[in-house]
Amino acid sequence: MYPNFVNHLKKYISLSAEEEELLLSGIKPVSIYKKEFLIKEGQVCKANYFVEQGLLRMYFINNKGIEQVTQFALENWWIADYMSLTSQSNSHFYIQAVENSTIIAIEHHKQEKLLEQIPQLERYFRLMMQRAYAAAQMRVKFFHVHTKEENYRYFIRLFPEFVQRIPQYMLASYLGLTPEYLSELRKKQP
Amino acid sequence: MYPNFVNHLKKYISLSAEEEELLLSGIKPVSIYKKEFLIKEGQVCKANYFVEQGLLRMYFINNKGIEQVTQFALENWWIADYMSLTSQSNSHFYIQAVENSTIIAIEHHKQEKLLEQIPQLERYFRLMMQRAYAAAQMRVKFFHVHTKEENYRYFIRLFPEFVQRIPQYMLASYLGLTPEYLSELRKKQP
Question: What is the C-alpha separation between A51 and B144, in angstroms, rounded?
């Protein structure tokens, strides 16, 4: 049951059989089809989401009415609008399935409860938040110091399988390219 | 001794007198003068830094040779290059004092040790990382959907005292403005 989720936890913390059972009783598996939404802008982000199988993206609509992708989440990644989740205020983002996906949802109040009951989970989520924040710090620099073509080349070299899984227009949005420019880059020899 | 640090901790977790003593014996107060560095690009970020008193900034040098400010840290904020800190690899950033500052440094290996000895610290740092990551998610949207002038107006309305404390060219860099454009905006009636 949810092998990715359980294995991922066990990479970072040790849980007793009772704790594992308690945790699994507190999560909610969610199957969503490609293009379905976990949250939309204006809704409260009610849960923290782990990708057991599949692929999600987070985006917002910019002031020209165009979707701007800020993040993807593959297997073993957590995703949420953490401002909305923490304060239970309205979200500024959309989280949508890019493929048919199996998601583990931990609702906000349930996560708070589980953190009290299983203190090692604090360590697990501290490590997850630190990893996400470290990546966010790097991303800011990365997008500033390289040209758009360099960003594209770097990205496809680092994540070749991932690039196969996402539609080109989403990759273009994430990298800040027009779809036309991305198409030109793809035609050139790397 | 370090009232901001101790009060900040107590807002989030309860420590026994022994735990507080253990924690305080593991930290290192650092006094740095304005313009001194905690880390420079290429050095390993050896510690997690809390601003007890003063103001720090994080920046990198972009491909035009210009400083790009990505973050400020006032009293009660933590700052580090978390990729460098976590993996003890070379940093991609500079962290420099904007004012004479008193900093609490927790060295990486010491923080790992303290987290083992005082498990509640996992909760404290989980909350700190989650807050920082939530702010980073919002920042990406914020800088995309508003004009530079809107960003400036919003920033000075939200953080009026802070804006008084930083040199204008640093604020311009953080907001992605030229110093000349910032100067024009300041002359206009808000």
Answer: 27
User: Phi and psi for B77 in degrees, rounded to 5?
Assistant: -110, 145
- Closest residue on chain B to A65 (Cα): B145
ipTM: 0.94
Average pLDDT over residues A131-151: 88
Q: What's the mean pLDDT in A104-133? A: 96
d(CA A171, CA A182): 9
Residue corresponding to tokens 């800040």? A176
| H/E segment holding residue B68 | strand B67-73
Of B62, B115, B129, the CB nearest to A133: B129
Tens digit of pLDDT for each residue in A6-25? 999 999 999 999 999 999 99
B134–A83 CB contact, under 8 Å: yes
> Distance, in angstroms, between A135 CA and closest chain B CA?
7
Residues of B whose CB is below 8 A from A130: 82, 86, 125, 129
For residue A64, which residues of chain B lie inside 8 Å, CB to CB?
Answer: none
- With cut-offs at 50, 70 and 90, classify the pLDDT of residue A190: low
What are phi and psi for residue A148, nearest 5 degrees?
Answer: -60, -35
State whether A93 and B126 contact (CB < 8 Å): no
Give the DSSP H/E element, type plus range, for residue B4: helix B3-12
Higher per-residue confidence, B63 vs A80:
A80
Given this model, what pLDDT does residue B14 score? 95
